[in-house]
Amino acid sequence: MPFTDRSGVTICYETHGDPDDVPLMLVCGLGMQLVRWDEELLAALTARGFFVIAHDNRDIGLSESFAHVEVDVIAAVMAAMEGAAVEAPYLLSDMAADAVAVLDDLGVERAHVVGTSMGGMIGQAMAIEHGDRVASLTSIMSTTGDPDVGQPKPEVLGALLPGGGEGRDAVIEATVETFRAIGSPEHFDEDLTRAAAARAYDRAHDPLAQSRQLVATIASGSRSDALRSISVPTLVVHGAEDPLIDVSGGRRTAEVIPGAELLVVEGMGHDIPRVFQPQIIEAVLALVGRAESAVAS
Q1: What is the pLDDT of residues 85-122, one digit of tens each?
Q2: pLDDT of 62
Q3: Domain annotation covers residue 171
Q4: What contacts 127, CB < 8 A, 6 or more positions away?
Q5: What is the rounded distance in angstroms from the CA atom of residue 47 to the CA atom of residue 25?
Q6: Residue 17 in 3-state DSSP?
């Protein structure tokens, strides 16, 4: 499992598949480590001819920690509501630069970028600020940063903050209950969720990292105007039943990115259960095909 510090901080990443295949970068969401990617999803992507690149965003997993920085999520929310500056240890732009640094370390000129939730926001920042490195963008269950769309339902606000008490068992159980609340109502897999939570806890556990990443998303503000400048082929995927980032966030994303395709998946919440993976993979394959054809012509 290699590391890079080309962006100025240490980023941990891993790869799957043949380096000669089409590069596809997966970007994790809020508080998610690279070990949270479903092994069946990874296997399906490599089987379809992708060289899959996954990394820990800064401040999570084995990438560089900012545990020395204290943040106040409530103060950040209040400042954002008042239109004031939000203090944050880093921004989504910094996390986008980290992802590009991973591509640099691998010698990958351009990659198809697939980001989920906060990872979709990072992917958007990559396409805005490093468009020459992004072959296509798939933004899944994400939003634009506009305050009038993509907001969570009140009953799941707690999912944005760390919790669950002390100790391995308590944290794992709290993670399971969080994903039960925000996941696809008819397709929540408790065993897979518990196993993924255990892998993440045993690998690297920082209970406050998620709060720092959340403040980074708040401080980064709206991307709507900048998203209008994106010229790479784009697919926006969102679950119709997403309680954490309302589907309006996905709709707005598709509205502002020129030529973006919108796929709303009925029955999907804020997760990608295995039942929906084939549909999403096929949509990504179609996008990649269009992008590769455009380059060839």
Answers
A1: 999 999 999 999 999 999 999 999 999 999 999 999 99
A2: 98
A3: no
A4: 113, 134, 137, 230, 232, 234
A5: 15
A6: coil
Cross-strand bridge partners of residue 136: 112
Q: Are 230 and 137 in contact (CB under 8 A)?
A: yes
Tokens 């039960």 locate to 180
Has residue 222 been placed in a domain?
A: yes
Give the structural domain span for 115.
3-156+206-296
Closest CA to 61 of 89, 17, 30, 99: 30
Q: Which residue has the tokens 């950040």?
A: 76
Give the global pTM: 0.97
**How confident is the model over 204-221, as a mean pLDDT?**
96
Q: Three-state DSSP class for 244?
A: coil
CA atoms in the 13 A half-sphere facing the CB of 186: 8
- Selection from 186, 175, 137 nearest residue 284 by Cα: 137
Q: What's the CATH code of the domain at 31?
A: 3.40.50.1820
pLDDT tens digit sequence for 19-62: 999 999 999 999 999 999 999 999 999 999 999 999 999 999 99
